[in-house]
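Each lists sequence, tokenised fold; shown next:
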Amino acid sequence: MKIVIPGGTGQVGTILNRALSAAGHEVVVLTRRPAREREVAWDGRTWGPWAEEIDGSDVVINLAGRSVSCRYTPANLRAMMDSRVHSTEIVGEAIAAAARPPGVWLQMSTATVYAHRFDAPNDEVTGVIGGSEPDVPDYWSYSVEIARAWERAQEVADTPHTRKVALRSAMVMSPDRGGVFDVLLRLARLGLGGPVAGGGQYVSWIHDRDFVRAVEFLIERDDLRGPVNLAAPTPLPQRAFMRGLRSAWGVPVGLPATRAMAELGAFVLRTDTELLLKSRRVVPGRLLAEGFDFAYADWPEAAGDLVRRRRGDRGRAGAEGALVSGSS
């Protein structure tokens, strides 16, 4: 198949590109800064020659959008909104104009669309959409509005010959450098991977290999459309999540952090505490109902695999460095 991935140079795009290319598919990445073979320039806003790649493709997986790993200032929140909505709109226009439109359009969304809650999990049918929870920062509501506008842009696109699926993804855990697992592992190794603000808030996550398998599943199942939660079936409180990560790496202690300490740490890291404090209790209702089998349904096993792969990468890097040193 020919698969086009707008915005495919980030962590999730790299994971998909690597796996889908290895499976023998032709993968084309649309990016603002093409640097490799099969990368094509686009700006995420305006029409261009890139649209020719969509015409005749089999699958489009749109991942474009400004990273959420930043301070949630008004300017950054607006950039998140605009980058997601405008890129989705222009992808929809390209699909609508294609003489041979793709059979399926998978559109990235986010589990952040659901409410901050502790009492029950959110699936696609009974889940509560956020935005009106009491006692949460006002800008959390704007994050939900971003998610809803992102999905609406795909919903209203006039693409009658293309099946549309919105990927309400939890955090994708991969051993790659620079991703969310990398950041959390660094904190754990420094002894800072303890409960934050009590640690009762739920963490939803998905192992990178299950993420790829779920995407492949949704491509193959031509009867599935609309929102689909991409999350492991066992979200868990943040304190237990970090305990599992520490155990996998072999760190006995994780210092706790108050909300104020989390605010300070987020400021230093140029990110925001919503990523730490919002309770994302999301479950994959539709995937489970349709028979999808998670290889990594539970966090301890997933964390163990990710740690083994991370350590394997370090070992290979060390061996390569020794070989280079020996030949110089």
Observations:
- Residues 317-328 have pLDDT under 50 and may be disordered.
- The first strand starts at residue 2 and ends at 6.
- Residues 214 and 230 are 7 Å apart (CA to CA).
- The radius of gyration is 20 Å.
